[in-house]
Amino acid sequence: MPGVFQDFALATVFVSDAQYNRNIHFDSSPQAVRLYLLYNHWAFKVLLYFFIMVNLSLAIFEEPAVFLLPLWATMLVELLCLIVFTARLVHYAKVIPPVKFWKDPKNICIIAVLTLTLVDMIIYGSLEAAKIYCVRWSRVLRPLLLVNVTEGRQLRRAFRSIRNALPQIFYVFLLFMFSLLVFSLMALKLLGKRNLKNIEGYPYFTDYLEIVFQLYVLVTTANSPDVMMPAYNAGSLFTIFFILYILINTYIFMSVFLAVVYNSYKKYLKEEIRQLVRAKRYKMARAFDVLQEQKEGCSQPVLTQASWNHIVRQVRPDITDAHRDLLWSVCDDKNQGVIGKVAFVQLADLLNIEVITLKSRPHPLQNLFPTIYLSAPSRLICRLVQHRGFVIAFDLIILVNAVFIGLDEENPLISNSEWGFLALYMLEILLKLYVFEPRSFFSRHIMVTFTNSRVLEIQDLAQNMFRIIINTLIRIGPAILTFGQLIVVVYYVFAIVGMELFKNKVKFFDNSTHPEHAYCGNPLLKGHSFAQLGYCKNNFNNVVSSFILLVELTVVNQCDGFASVTHVSARIFFVLFHIVVVIVIINIFVAFVLEAFFVEYSVDKSQLQTSLEKKIEELELAVAQYVTLTTEPSQDQDIQVRSSRQESRSQQGGQTV
Amino acid sequence: MPGVFQDFALATVFVSDAQYNRNIHFDSSPQAVRLYLLYNHWAFKVLLYFFIMVNLSLAIFEEPAVFLLPLWATMLVELLCLIVFTARLVHYAKVIPPVKFWKDPKNICIIAVLTLTLVDMIIYGSLEAAKIYCVRWSRVLRPLLLVNVTEGRQLRRAFRSIRNALPQIFYVFLLFMFSLLVFSLMALKLLGKRNLKNIEGYPYFTDYLEIVFQLYVLVTTANSPDVMMPAYNAGSLFTIFFILYILINTYIFMSVFLAVVYNSYKKYLKEEIRQLVRAKRYKMARAFDVLQEQKEGCSQPVLTQASWNHIVRQVRPDITDAHRDLLWSVCDDKNQGVIGKVAFVQLADLLNIEVITLKSRPHPLQNLFPTIYLSAPSRLICRLVQHRGFVIAFDLIILVNAVFIGLDEENPLISNSEWGFLALYMLEILLKLYVFEPRSFFSRHIMVTFTNSRVLEIQDLAQNMFRIIINTLIRIGPAILTFGQLIVVVYYVFAIVGMELFKNKVKFFDNSTHPEHAYCGNPLLKGHSFAQLGYCKNNFNNVVSSFILLVELTVVNQCDGFASVTHVSARIFFVLFHIVVVIVIINIFVAFVLEAFFVEYSVDKSQLQTSLEKKIEELELAVAQYVTLTTEPSQDQDIQVRSSRQESRSQQGGQTV
After folding, report:
1. Quick one: signal sequence residues (chains A, B) (predicted)?
2. Which residues of A touch B530 (CB under 8 A)?
3. How many angstroms separate the CA of residue B473 from the nearest CA in chain A?
4. ipTM strictly over 0.95?
């Protein structure tokens, strides 16, 4: 029955899309489905990301380079990347209907980027051949590919979240600027006429724009207290102005920025989840439509257990028969042997709920090497590690270690002992991994005992708090990957622009006896604090040092050196960077950490009660066996931490989300 | 009828206590009530706070002093303060039953502070007379009076909120310290053996405790990027260590601190509100018990409209008859002429809801000088100011001003024109205040037009956003007073301790030609960056400069100078200050701003519907007249922004809170 086989294939794709929140409206013709399956193959995705990485890393080898390669080499590699991207795009175009393809802005964006890059390469190549100075402007577009490929879903969501917050951020920013300008005017009137000099001997607070910039930097706390000292030295009362300014602009406005970002982040999250749930239901409903049968005695079309089993086996070949039976009994609540559409739709979420069989599940090593793992010495090790004395022994080791740390570092015996201690700790973790089933080990066991035994004897409350915090930290783990990509995209653009603006303005000499070492190879920096503090290596001379400099600018915005070697307007670049990265992106990150903590905290309080858990209780189904229910983070759920939980709740409660 | 008069007096006190959330269990005997009324008199409160201020300001005149006064003078003033505080305490002891008095920890605390201060004064005075060196340690206790006087309710609440957050903060801090220690160990192993030198030529990252301190400071971003530069200069790969550290400790852990503080702040807020509501109900119920009558046909005791009117007139003599009738009709929902206990209990909240009669209320000047205000020239001014042209004219003035700001500052005509512009803006505000009723003017009118006309033409959304932000800023206004007190208490303690530890270690010379000017009068600072950057005035030589220095330390933690002139362990003082002020207090402040913003945002969305508004709609009672309903912030409601709203909701919904 090729028809039935195709039906199952199609239904499997729908269910799998729903499970992983893929939202591609592929053509449902058999060859398109086959192409779509190929499109989703992991090898192609890895290949794509590999070439995106290659494309981005080209900046390392292009002028200004870390390792300079000849132009033809980088051009050739870039051309290869472009070909790969085009092939992937053509593949995608074959999977989905043409109308949908041309309506999607991300495809148009990729095409534009590819075309513009090609044009730029041709122009640059020919001008370079004619020895005419030219800028490789299309390099700024490279990170756009990372955002616009089909797999960049999370990254796009992060950018959408930023875009949604932008109007509100803009209004707060206007108020903030208004306050900044008024304070600057006050500073000018208050201090401009007093002939004060700053530490470098220049007139202090006499130029309006200079004041605006200095007070803006004060918001980042980078020039505190230097910016205040000349006024303070002239009179203590002037500090009232600065304290007022810091209270309003550094503390209140920056908090309002965080509040606005957090608020719009949460609002947006809800909307996204609603859409995801809708898309998921739609996919599941389509899968059901493909597989449905008309049974006697049922007014509605239904799905038999056989078809259901077939689909689940296709989608999750790894789960056990017992687990699958459990899932079926959750779906087929009334034991009718068939399920309707509503019961089927919740399958995608049920599959995402991970059932850990804590006690009964054998250690993976036992599966792999049963004879060795169950041998007498191995059993002895297990008993030893599980013994209370093991924990106490390692607590003592930590104590000794703490004493050793405090002792004289010069003694080689003591300083080398650290390696011994580290080795012991590694041994402890390895032994525990050997003895305890890894998943249960990581899910809750070790984390608590780890911090518990190591720091203090802590009561229940503390353990609880530790678990919440550690779970928060674990929870934000995958999200940091998305934020990492986001940061790479923004940094890359700023790094490329920064390199064009500031390359070789500041030089670093490995050899500190070099005559130009003291002023970073730029006479303009003679006696400048930038050179005096030894910041020469903070430059835009290649993409690596640009990235490191941008990290430093994220933490503290120091840019006077670059304004000195180019033009005062270079500050615009740094202020812009501060607005984009610190005010927007870092605040989103903080908002994300806050939300992850609150979710972890509230879930811990209210006890996640899924229908699966209820079913397990109802059926009294080997309670000892199924102890922990955790939600496996699917590939899309790192930004929206609530999604899977809210989704499963929504599935339970009908239309509550 | 003296009995009835006393009853009314007692009931009035109960209602007024409930309205202002006073929670004093005074004796209900007539003379105790009279004493209690006296105790609550504003003059006594002002006097008390005046003497608290005097007592705190003594630090200005005591060694190390801003203006040195002889010892007998300050001692005498302090003795006077102690007498006033004792008198106030004795008064309080007469008001409440003795058992309650001795059970209250705040009374015990005040007695202890007063006794200890007296003891210290005697010891110090006699030792000083014998020329023996001695420390006035009881000065640290002074701010405790601010916390423990009956009126310091908000401040105590803020401290309780901090105390409640402490256990959770402590656990996060343990994890943070664990991470810090591990990173420090890694840094020592990674960088300690490489013979690197920092910018001052000292060995870099060779001492474990030094590394721990430097990495702790990196969390405050104060020493970024300096702490990283020697490693970065030695090899770019070392930056990975620092970037990882900044990500985990500066960004994630600091966000988790905020999350913990915010979370416990919110949880605590709910509990406080619940208690406040309970206390309020209890007070109102007692007032009802005093006034209740047994009417025919009513199974329950009731209150007549006459008694009710009497009470309301006593408690709020300022409200109009129409307003009082409106309140009565809300209470007496079924028009029975009498009300029961439940209806009476909500009075305290009803009185806190302010009804502004927008259109009908005449300008206060019209009441004071009707003939002048209603004269032809005055009417012309009103018409002119209300005209659209007035707004446009001032928009144009702003534009001209913006152009002038950008012009050459040296030109005296242009630089002096600023004063003209400022005068014009003041004129505009004065004119508007003359024309518009001040309360309606401030409540919403001016704030929107102010920013609206001044910055951009903004659509509805933006106006909305602006209103939310400005309301947030206005809403946190009174709370800043409480936080101000909180900060003063903490700063005062640190300033007193800091002065004992560091006084005269660093000296500032007004005359920059003084030979010791270059190294702040301390040879240990020769060539030190502290002196080079001109920080000499950042010292602990008197209480004012201590406070200013503590503000600077709040923003950026710079303390190397003080460790250099005393001992490396002086850093403990600064790290402690950072933990207390930045990690705890500033985070509570940020949490407060966040919560104020979210409340303002959600209230704006859900539309506050009080029973009063409903009643106004029901009765169609001069809808044009009663337009705005705002909740007047009662003296206790600055920390818990939701209280009055939640309370009125709880009163509506019975036992919902």
Report:
1. none
2. none
3. 8
4. no
Tell me the three state secondary structure of residue A627.
strand
Provide the chain B residues 473-502 that lie in CB contact (below 8 A) with chain A: 473, 476, 480
| Strand bridging mode B353-357 / A338-339 | unpaired
Mean pLDDT of chain A: 79
Tell me how many helices (H) and strands (E) chain A has. Answer: 31, 4
Query: How confident is residue B640, by pLDDT bands cut at 50, 70 and 90?
Result: very low
Which residue, B282, B343, B356, is CA-closest to B611?
A: B343
From the number of C-beta atoms within 10 Å of its C-beta (0-12, 13-18, 19+), residue A3 rates as exposed
Where do we find the tokens 């705190």? Answer: B56
Mutation pick from A543, A594, A598, A601 vs chain B, by most beta carbons of B within 10 Å, is A594
Nearest to B323 by CA among B18, B626, B644, B16: B626
Residues A354-411: pLDDT tens digits?
Answer: 555 444 456 777 778 888 888 888 888 888 887 778 877 877 787 777 667 656 556 6
In b/e form, how buried is each residue of A29-60, taking b as 16+ CB within 10 angstroms? eeebbebbeebbeeeeeeebeebbeebbebbe
Is some CB atom of chain A closer than 8 A to the CB atom of B168?
yes
Q: Does A450 touch chain B (CB under 8 A)?
A: no
Q: How far is residue A61's CA from residue A577's CA, in Å, rounded to a whole number?
A: 25
What's the CA gap between A342 and A651, in Å, rounded? 9
Q: What is the pLDDT of residue A459?
A: 38
User: What does residue A197 show for φ and ψ, rounded to 5 degrees?
Assistant: -125, 145
Rounded to a whole number of angstroms, the distance from the CA of A492 to the nearest CA of chain B is: 17
Kindly give, in sequence order, each residue whose CB lies less than 8 Å from that of residue B158, ignoring residues fewer than 6 positions away: B482, B483, B485, B486, B588, B639
Q: Any chain A CB within 8 A of the CB of B538?
A: yes
Provide the pLDDT for residue B440.
57
Taking an 8 Å cut-off on Cβ atoms, the answer to whether B548 and A239 are in contact is yes
In tens, the pLDDT along B283-330 reads 888 888 888 888 777 778 888 888 888 888 888 887 778 778 877 887
* pLDDT confidence of residue A479: 75
Residue in chain A nearest B480 by alpha carbon: A247
The Cα of A548 is separated from the nearest Cα of chain B by a number of Å equal to 7
Q: Which residues 378-437 of chain B have a CB within 8 Å of chain A?
A: 405-406, 409, 418
pLDDT in tens, B137-172: 999 999 999 998 888 888 888 888 888 888 888 888
Residue at token pair 């959600």: B602
Q: Do A247 and B472 touch (CB under 8 A)?
A: no
Contact check, Cβ <8 Å, B409/A192: yes
Question: Measuring CA to CA, which residue among A607, A556, A605 is closest to residue A577?
Answer: A556
Contact call for B469 and A175, based on CB within 8 A: yes
Rounded Cα–Cα distance for residues A623 and A608 (Å): 17
Chain B residues with CB under 8 Å of A239 CB are: 548, 551
Q: What is the token pair recorded at A424?
A: 């012991």
The alpha-carbon radius of gyration of chain B (Å, integer) is 31
- Closest A-chain CA to B595: A259
Q: Which residues of B touch A255 (CB under 8 A)?
A: 589-590, 593-594
Distance (Å, whole) CA A113 – CA A110: 5
pLDDT at A592 over 60: yes
Measured between beta carbons, the chain A residues lying within 8 angstroms of B175 are 451, 466, 469-470
pLDDT in tens, A616-649: 655 544 333 333 333 333 333 333 333 333 333 3
